[in-house]
Amino acid sequence: MEQNIVYIIIGALALIIGVIIGYYIRQSIAKKRAGTLEAKLEKRVAQVKEETSALVKNAEKKAFEITEKAEKEIDQRRKEFLRSQEILLSREKLLEDKISNFEAKENELKDKVEKVRAIKESLDGLRKEAEVKLEKVANLSRDDAKKELLALVEIESEKEIIEKMKKMEERGKERLDARAKEIVTLAIQKCAVNHTQELSTTTFMLASEDLKGRIIGKEGRNIKTFEKLTGVELIVDETPDSIVISCFNPIRRQIAKLALDKLVQDGRIQPAKIEEKIEEAKTEISNTIKEAGEKAVYDTGIIGMHDKLIQILGRLYYRTSYGQNVLLHSIEMAFLAETIAEELGANSQIAKRAALLHDIGKAIDQQMQGSHIEIGIKILEKFGEKQEIINAMRAHHDDYPADTLEAVIVKVADAISGARPGARKDTIENYLQRLKNLEDIANRFDGVDRTYAIQAGREIRVFVKADKVDDLQSQKMARQIAENIEEELQYPGEIKVTVIRETRVVEFAR
């Protein structure tokens, strides 16, 4: 028991001694760590002091450099200012010298003016004295002497004056005639528009002779359908590899040509395809008309024209006047009018624009009543053309007075363009007018859908609306049309009138 107590006491003492030794060891370690941290702090502080010192030195150096640079710039500016001041002072001195010289010259000039005035006054006095003395000697006043002298000179020189006036008048007329010829010649030389005679037939070339039979179709159904929808006549004769398209209307003829070309390329020639290709050709012709109008405006250099007016102008591409293409004729007139106006000092832009639009009424004269000039005036007013343009274009056929120089120029340009050798043919125009009159007679009847004059005017085909005209009325209409033709037209031989009434019923199986 005692032995155990001894062991416990010894263990307690050992524990206490261990705790004391551990405490001192920990204190020693803490002191060492504190010393190490303090050394690091002192080292960092020293490093910060060195960096701060370096920054301060750099800042002082830069401040010195900036100050030195500013002082140099101030010195340079001061020198420039002093130099400018010296220049200004020298100029001021020079100006003062010039002013003093000017004042001296002005005073000198005033003295001279006074002397001249005095001399003039003395001369006037001497002249009056001389006139008084002359009047006393001649016993005539100044006015009487002047009248008597003029009367004597007039009597002696009357014959000579009349002869000189006649010579001057003849020379002036010769010069004016020569100048007019020069202007017209120059205008014609500057204009290089080609003229083509527009005929009433078009030849369509075929790749092979076999296509003729396919175009005619079984029992002629294809060619009949084609002629009915286009209003042209297809002449299939023995001429190898060709078909002639005959029609006085150039738009119909061109539509037929395009449609026939599309059918041949497609290869399927039958009534349904014929109708489809004709519609495609009509769309294409409409685009061609628009392009022709835009090209005409672009070639002549005219700007600011309404789009619809350009479209109407393009229709003249398929319109002829005495065999002359009206659009080409209008373009040529625009160039001629511009050149003549420039030579005469007139407004070339007004003359050129009026010349291009002078026949615009012919584009739709078959659809409206009235002359092409009246129709053209209405069109130009509708699309906002200026009044001076309208005044210049409306006088080219003397329907209105040519009250401006530009109107006279347009009239002259029209005469020059139409008078070119080979530009026009009266016989073609008369023939086309007869065919148009033939169609107009039939179109006057109610219920008529469309009318085509074919076979050079020897036949007219009239298509009527089936819902408005029955079979009996069709027979009566054919007789009435024939009677009107006999009364109103003069023609050789006979004209066949064919009235066609067709009922088409379409249903869809769905």
Q: Enumerate the spans where pLDDT stays under 50 for 5 or more consecutive residues.
A: none
In CATH, the homologous superfamily of the largest domain goes by the name Hypothetical protein af1432
Succession of helices and strands: HHEHHEEHHHEEHHHHHHEEHE
Largest sheet: 3 strands, antiparallel
The average pLDDT value, as a whole number, equals 79
Please, could you describe this protein's structure?
By secondary structure, this protein is mainly alpha-helical. The chain folds into five domains: 1-123; 140-189; 191-271, Ribosomal Protein S8, Chain: A, domain 1 (2-Layer Sandwich), CATH 3.30.1370.10; 301-424, Hypothetical protein af1432; 427-510, Cation efflux protein, cytoplasmic domain (Alpha-Beta Plaits), CATH 3.30.70. It contains 14 helices and eight strands. It has helices at residues 2-138, 142-190, 210-216, 221-230, 250-266, 271-300, 307-314, 326-344, 348-356, 372-382, 387-393, 405-418, 426-443, 471-488, and strands spanning 201-205, 233-235, 242-246, 320-321, 324-325, 448-454, 459-464, 496-501. A three-stranded antiparallel β-sheet has the order 1-3-2, with helices on one face. A hairpin with a 4-residue loop joins strand 6 and strand 7. Helix 9 packs across helix 11 and helix 9 (348-356) crosses helix 12. The chain is flat and about 170 Å long. The model has no long low-confidence stretch (mean pLDDT 79).
